[in-house]
Amino acid sequence: MPMIVNIKKPILLDIGCGWEAKFLQSIESYVEEAIGIDFKAPNLNTKKIKTIKQIITDKLPFDDSRFNIVTMLAVLEHIEQPLLIVKEINRILSWGGYVIITVPSRISKPILEFLSYRLNIVNPEEIRDHKHYYNKKDIEDLFLPCGFEIIRHEYFQFGMNNFCILRKGSL
Questions:
Q1: How many domains, in total, are found in the chain?
Q2: Is 1 contained in some domain?
Q3: Mean pLDDT throughout 109-138?
Q4: pLDDT per residue over 96-123, tens digit each?
Q5: Which residues contact 72 (CB under 8 A, 6 or more apart)?
Q6: Which of 97, 107, 126, 137 has the fewest CB atoms nearer than 10 Å to its CB?
């Protein structure tokens, strides 16, 4: 499979990095710099990685065009006003930069609710916090008007989740 995201000096923002920031720690040797932001972020401050403990709203505390990669892994479904955060991502992402997301699909909603509320296998608090579920068209409708193009989209985990790479700078 060809390399889709090829940035020589990745400067990455992980929105919703989580309480352990495992993804950030796993990519440390591959990035120039990486910042994680989450209301439950750990206190990390290494040569390449820094975390910021903050609730994710419609404003992000970064300069324009600061990053060339933004990740949101299992986060977008928790955002109350996703259009506002997509506009913020557009502001802080450099031209030609990439957004990488994973987000539950629409078909996962009843399954996740069953696993959570009936079988108690999935944390009910997490599922109650889901504001939105997405299919490919929903992702297009959210990102394309903000100047992004889809580079790659696929469903995984039996169609229960989306994996999507978008690039800033569509015409």
A1: 1
A2: no
A3: 95
A4: 999 999 999 999 999 999 999 999 999 9
A5: 14, 15, 16, 99, 100, 101, 102, 103
A6: 137
pTM: predicted TM-score of the whole model, two decimal places: 0.92
| Distance (Å, whole) CA 27 – CA 10 | 10
Token representation of residue 71: 């990740």
User: 1, 149 in Cβ contact below 8 A?
Assistant: no
Q: Residue 112 is encoded by which pair of tokens?
A: 């996740």
Instruction: Report yes or no: 20 and 44 within 8 Å, Cβ to Cβ.
Output: no
- Beta-carbon contacts of 117 under 8 Å, excluding residues fewer than 6 positions away, are 124, 127
162 burial (CB, 10 Å; 0-12 / 13-18 / 19+) is buried
Strand ranges (E), 24-106: 33-38, 49-53, 67-73, 93-104
Q: Is the dihedral of CA 34, 35, 40, 44 positive or negative?
A: positive
Give the range of the structural domain holding residue 146, as residue numbers without chain letter. Answer: 11-104+132-168
Residue that is written with structure tokens 């910021």 in the block = 52
